[in-house]
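Re: the multi-chain job from yesterday

Posting the exact lines I submitted so nobody has to dig through the queue logs.
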Amino acid sequence: MKRYAFGFDIGGTNIVCGLVDREGEIIWTRKVPTEAGKGNDHVMAVVANCAEIGLAESGIAAEDVVGIGIGMPGLVDPEQGISVLSSNLHFRNYPVLAKLKELTGMPVCMENDVRMYVYGEAVVGAGRNRRHVFGLTVGTGLATAMVNDGKLYQGGGDFSGELGHVPIEGIDYRCNCGLTGCLETVVSATGLARQAREAVLSGQKTLLADLKQDPAELKAADVSAAYDEGDEVAVTIMHRTGVTLGKALSYVVPLLSPDIIVLGGGVLHAGERFLAPVRETLFERIMPIYRERLELAAAQRNEDAGVIGSASWAFRQFGS
Amino acid sequence: MKRYAFGFDIGGTNIVCGLVDREGEIIWTRKVPTEAGKGNDHVMAVVANCAEIGLAESGIAAEDVVGIGIGMPGLVDPEQGISVLSSNLHFRNYPVLAKLKELTGMPVCMENDVRMYVYGEAVVGAGRNRRHVFGLTVGTGLATAMVNDGKLYQGGGDFSGELGHVPIEGIDYRCNCGLTGCLETVVSATGLARQAREAVLSGQKTLLADLKQDPAELKAADVSAAYDEGDEVAVTIMHRTGVTLGKALSYVVPLLSPDIIVLGGGVLHAGERFLAPVRETLFERIMPIYRERLELAAAQRNEDAGVIGSASWAFRQFGS
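And the result, structure tokens for all chains:
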């Protein structure tokens, strides 16, 4: 009997869900607005509704689904099944698992969304067949996760993976977390946009000034666009951002010796413009024993790694 | 029937060994010169001889010993039982396990010495009853290890734990590893002595100039001695060294969320002179979720954590 699991990637804007088989193949998928402003119970109802539609549209019977895996942003308590704090979604100490079990009647498990994303990349993406997978997503913010021999690392209080909140020498932006100079204030889509805006506002001669009438509307994609026109300011911003991440990763590699570092999230759209300085900086700062065996790769399943990861996580919990 | 294991901590100068029970109590212990200059086979013979003496002196029967655990400096391949590279001991791709099994007739396992030290601290020292123990030894060099839920983290190629070899902004000492500015060129006993020597040679007004006729003979302990006399140069050196380590640890905490960081090695002799700036720097650079739960503690079994750790490791492998 072929079995399936539901995987949910709950984001601030959209919920992506899918029915996934044991090999990580997506049989059915759907994307719906999260509508977080309508309240926590509403978001849960949207999830339950997706599951119902998934069964109906795919024709898969409920008894062939081992359970539901949920990836949620922010702090989660997987054992208690609670969303401890998700600022984007306005969740605080909300009993996600209890609510979803009640609504769906299925076994449910949950984890942090970045961990589920990296787990997905470890199972079927760039980290496939590697024992030690270190992954990071660089999008609105920067977060990390680690899968060793197929096991997810959670750390004390389930609080691991916040490399984005290391204060970096020479950066003095205030971070939302309360610290100053955090890595993600520069190394993120938000950070790229911020640097672009500052360059324009400080009167630097750059194409970025022409791309948007209001510099506040500049996006990371604009930096890539100006970069491709040979704009020196854009090249400098992209380079500085990549170098900053490369330096931060030079702590991770000797500490943990991952077999592969998988880089995902929105910043992947910048491609080698961003990856090249990351790689160059990192590889010149690590010992040959690491240099010879480490791979730094772009995520392969950027769009659906979260869904595959959380479904695979459900298989791991319930799919014996 | 009460069972025991041998634990060996093989250092560049001395071999410390002990017979340890399952609770981590040392029943018998001995320290002998390593005599690494006499060759690899000789070092192995010293180890085997220690085991023989241990049985004779303790009166414990060989059949009550589950096996031998070996902690060796440098790169080891625990699965193949090989010392891949230990510069201090002049070992290179030497089959430690095969040789010791032949000489002793007992089951033998091996690991890196710092991992065994941290494992010992996790089992019976400062990390007792903590799920996520991150440990580091700061002595001749700086190395790290991690024990999660009683399991030792090894990483790809068994190469984890080299936080000492992260190049740090603003440090430009050449490191033995080939890189420049590695953390351990400053944060180590060697690094403290180096900074003391440089201060004297550059003509700074300091008590350190009076402690040794030849500045090349200054040791880390001299920095502590001058510090206690209120010597400003010594205070600055100790502070800078502690701050440098605190900054490096501010990468470790959000990345891994350990429950406790255990600090051991020769630098412990500096006590709070060193620990205070480490703690202060680290705690002001991490988010409240970590600040509220993290402990930074001195190792409790600094002298014998390595022996207890490798014996406990042997229990883990052979003591079912």
